[in-house]
Design a protein that fits this description.
With 169 residues, the protein is α+β, with helices and mostly antiparallel strands. It has three helices and seven strands; from the N terminus they run βββααββββα. It is 15% helix and 33% strand. 28% of the residues are buried.
Length: 169
Amino acid sequence: MSTRTELPPPAPLPVLPTGGDGPMGPHGSGCFGCGPEHPSGLHLAFVRTGDVIRATVHLGKRFQGAPGLAHGGIVSTILDDLSGAVPVALGQRAVTAKLEVDFTAPVLLGRDLVAEAWLETFEGRKIRIVSRLLDDGRVLAVGRALFLTVPREHFAGPAASASASSIAP
């Protein structure tokens, strides 16, 4: 567990021809975190404001871990999926190589939460991203992720085609 308390400021994100500030599309329609067609997904909707990407989420009882609290895996999923929007804002295809989550306070169910992510550094293939989950401005969890850029072919092939075309309920 990391003992760092101060988070680095956002590094600048470029304004691409495909978009700057405003809503961003999902990673894919069937993505558990942000896909609108995933029947049991989180349905996160990403919005870019300057160099920060945000999403709101309301976690109901189906995401419970300990009584009345969100499961840590769901909290990690939110931070990972939101972090994945940063490479998109950079115009890059990338995958999670490492995710470290510091759980700083209990995440109560039934609350409107805000998740934020921003670029820390982008060097070579390595994209370092910082994220956090907040409840009314209070930090509940902090994520530090390493994403690696990959070629388009990384997402091609039989396994990718099968998972994109059918979502199990």
